Amino acid sequence: FKEQSFRIGLHLLTGRAEPAAAGRAYTTLADxxxxxxxxxxxxxxxxxxxxxxxGAVAVVAxxxxxxxxxxxxxxxxxxxxxxxxxxxxxxxxxxxxEVFYIRFTQRLISALSAHTAEGGLYEVDMRLRPxxxxxxxxxxxSGFDHYYAADADxxxxxxxxxxRVVWSSRQDFGRKVEKAxxxxxxxxxxxxxxxxxxxxxxxxxxxxxxxRGFWDMKLVPGGQVDAEFAAQYGQLIAAAxxxxxxxxxxxxxxxxxxxxxxxxxxxxxxxxxxAAFDGDVDPDHEPAALQARLAEAVGAPDYATLKTRxxxxxxxxxxxxxxxxxxxxxx
Length: 331
Known about the structure:
Blueprint: H1 2-13, H2 19-49, E1 56-62, H3 63-66, E2 76-83, H4 97-112, E3 115-116, E4 119-120, E5 124-125, E6 138-140, H5 141-150, H6 154-160, E7 164-168, H7 171-186, H8 194-208, H9 224-240, H10 249-252, H11 257-276, H12 288-297, H13 303-330
Parallel strand pairs: 2-5, 2-6
Antiparallel strand pairs: 1-2, 1-7, 3-4
């Protein structure tokens, strides 16, 4: 997997792969890792605790893994959902279904984050599941349904707009999970002030997680978070209206060209920068060849034009997000 990731990055940096294609390739690689390691993790849980009759489990990708927009070094945001007959226990150690699927999930996390001679595979983040780090690491499907019916906040529904089933121990259960996710998104929330909630969340991020300079593509005003919040908010509106849903950020921003341009431009730049460097970097102090590749990745004639265009685009993107939310509030 590390070798394949290196090849994707190399093709991206040398111009043999476009940034959007690299995002799909990184995600396909992560999907392949999950599809390969999940069955092994399930077998290991069975070896340790015995078989669980009538149970099934699914691995759901969230965040950029869910929307198929990963970059080099992206975390894997995941949750696992399961179902099993009431009171069933494993044949060996008499584990409950909850214990069994917690052990499965722990083994999967260990496998996906294992450090090899070539380095670690992925950083796995399970905090976006219902109840976050306070609850069990694997969630019963009925508990998922109840949580989103009674307790979830707007930001948690926004997270769910990018949920995608990657693997399931049974195909029929995978389809059941997909339907449960869609049902949660489409369930009426008449008392929710979604536009107000999104505004408050973005303002809170501006205060507590400000961008780390011009080349922070995610958190600066007008950065990717602005476009992603607009996309996720739009998907919640579409869900309530019975319209088709998508996990793709660009597809969710259809009809909002400024936000589409802002997101795709900064996604392309992020792809190149993350393929070239492990941490934060200021391209102003890097070789001209990298500056030229950044400009090329977004169709700018040169690096100076890229910086000017990016600054202008961010101002327009922040204004577009505010207009989107204000229009809905007036409606």
